[in-house]
Amino acid sequence: MTDALSPGQTVGILGGGQLGRMLAVAASRLGLRTHVYDPAPGGPAAQVAQDVTTAGWDDTEALAAFADSVDVVTYEFENIPTDALDVIESKCPIRPSREALRVSQDRLTEKEFLAGLGLGTAPFAAVHDAASLDAALERIGTPAILKTRRFGYDGKGQARIGDPTEAAQALEAMSGAPALLEGFVPFDREISVIAARGLSGDVACFDPGENVHAEGILRTTTVPAALSEARRTDAVLMAARILNALDYVGVMGVELFVTADALLVNEIAPRVHNSGHWTQNGCAVDQFEQHVRAIAGWPLGDGQRHSDVVMENLIGDEVDRVPALSREADTALHLYGKDAARPGRKMGHVNRIRR
Amino acid sequence: MTDALSPGQTVGILGGGQLGRMLAVAASRLGLRTHVYDPAPGGPAAQVAQDVTTAGWDDTEALAAFADSVDVVTYEFENIPTDALDVIESKCPIRPSREALRVSQDRLTEKEFLAGLGLGTAPFAAVHDAASLDAALERIGTPAILKTRRFGYDGKGQARIGDPTEAAQALEAMSGAPALLEGFVPFDREISVIAARGLSGDVACFDPGENVHAEGILRTTTVPAALSEARRTDAVLMAARILNALDYVGVMGVELFVTADALLVNEIAPRVHNSGHWTQNGCAVDQFEQHVRAIAGWPLGDGQRHSDVVMENLIGDEVDRVPALSREADTALHLYGKDAARPGRKMGHVNRIRR
């Protein structure tokens, strides 16, 4: 294991939310230490990490000290300011690489990258003003979705255009930010592949999960997805192709639309992914440990599933269902240590094991 | 869930070793905070807990502050000084109760308790001097094992007596400590039942595991154990009987000898147990979460197994096998964050899932 971290060495994690929390716990199973960097104090990841830095993304001194104290840096969300990454990268490797961040931070760049690989996507066009929106609608038609190019997640920064008369209002919702128009895809189902690539270029994918979203937020993932064997294989090969093209190291979430005659890539996330939480109770090596193994230069788990699983997110006050859920057989609880159950906030999830 | 802890409340853990570490991680999955109390700094549990107190068992002030800061106190080892428990109990409930500690801290008291329940044990007799040892050997015969009544674990504080001429040397090895003589049991196999009892008196047991020891230290646990259905049921019922008799709250490890015609209780441990580590990769709710659920007043998991598992301990420099083990399919690594791999020291374990 050339360049592999040894037990006792430290993984730095940018971001202190639930993904960071579960990464830190997975790292601890491998005997690795973790150091969490987050502007907000006492968040989910800070509660379980050995070391915590609470400082802003513009605090050059804190960023440098953090980078000096760890052996590799990873991140649990995509929108980390470039200047902060510059400071860190001068001292310590960042995995997955910044190229993966650059591609996935911008929806237009991402779509062009995917199209460049010959992978199917929804039809798309860049939008920067009313004229380019009109031209895009002319070509793509309605219904369509206007999205900001950057900083979108869980349905934020998006406006649906049911017919051309709604174009002006949708453009206004972008607040002048660069955007892209995506054509509506009449999909049968949404799936995702949680794929991993190691430091030596080996790739391992978990079985595709079938996702149900509501109001832009993931509600459930079911594994196995209802897919033909050929489609299942195609989905995994498409994900592997993306990771290889980026010379990627770590876990990536690849969301796909399944239509009557194609698999289209919806989006990629260069990190562990909500739709991979089922692996915690379905596999010997879950997506969090898989990510840590990859960025630490360890061999990857093989992604084999020992059990079928249905993952369900607990959003907002759904966390009040925990007393009842804790009585359910074959149900594993995963709560994130957040105090306030605000609407839309991911408070935890359950994995129901199907034997 | 009357008296149940809510997410955000805090479990205090006495002892900072690997059992405390895995308890802390399990508590975090339930959204509970943990506060570890241990005289040694930076141990396995301290690395993953939210709060840590590093202070001695005689530090009354630190013990009181610790007890004031948590909502329930549990422990990961049995030999906590009585005075320390007195300080804590005046401020905060201790679960499992001190009665369970009192019984299991003293091998003679434990044997008498078990015999009083009508449960089979190895023949035993109290030994406090040469005359009582002679009388005990007369009654029990050889081979036999002389053990200190207190502070024994992993084969420490024990001397084998192959024939009566070895009696004096064995007695000397006790260094004047009160002891008991145990007859040798010609057992076919050793098993253990990881049993749990909740605050409302409900009991749930995991399937018996089959244990292999070497030099007094557990090496492997295999689940399911090679047992007839009747024996399996008997073992679980014996464990449940012990927990009920103690009005126990929490997880207990009950070790049994399987002989040609009987099940004999070897010893009980009022805590999570090395032979229950397999549950981490075999059950939706593992022994650590089960213990936290019990002491927090939550419903228990049902103990059902989704996969067969073989657990193997990594002792001392066996931790050097980690690079090779990390390449094995269906093998889950659990390392404890200990820096020095001293001989006999438990550094981690692997759970091999058998599908």
Automatic annotation (TrEMBL), chains A, B:
The lineage of its organism: Bacteria, Pseudomonadati, Pseudomonadota, Alphaproteobacteria, Rhodobacterales. Catalyzes the ATP-dependent conversion of 5-aminoimidazole ribonucleotide (AIR) and HCO(3)- to N5-carboxyaminoimidazole ribonucleotide (N5-CAIR). Catalyzes the ATP-dependent conversion of 5-aminoimidazole ribonucleotide (AIR) and HCO(3)(-) to N5-carboxyaminoimidazole ribonucleotide (N5-CAIR). It holds the Pfam family ATP-grasp. Homodimer. Pathway: Purine metabolism; IMP biosynthesis via de novo pathway; 5-amino-1-(5-phospho-D-ribosyl)imidazole-4-carboxylate from 5-amino-1-(5-phospho-D-ribosyl)imidazole (N5-CAIR route): step 1/2. Belongs to the PurK/PurT family. The keyword Ribosomal protein does not apply. ATP binds at residues 107, 147, 152-158, 182-185, 190, 213, 266-267. GO terms for cellular component: cytosol. Its EC number is 6.3.4.18. The keyword ATP-binding applies. It is an enzyme of class 6 (ligase). This is N5-carboxyaminoimidazole ribonucleotide synthase. It catalyses: 5-amino-1-(5-phospho-beta-D-ribosyl)imidazole + hydrogencarbonate + ATP = 5-carboxyamino-1-(5-phospho-D-ribosyl)imidazole + ADP + phosphate + 2 H(+). The gene is purK. Keywords: ATP-binding, Ligase, Nucleotide-binding, Purine biosynthesis. Residues 111-296 form the ATP-grasp domain. GO terms for molecular function: 5-(carboxyamino)imidazole ribonucleotide synthase activity; ATP binding; metal ion binding; oxidoreductase activity, acting on the CH-OH group of donors, NAD or NADP as acceptor; phosphoribosylaminoimidazole carboxylase activity. One of its GO terms (biological process) is 'de novo' IMP biosynthetic process.
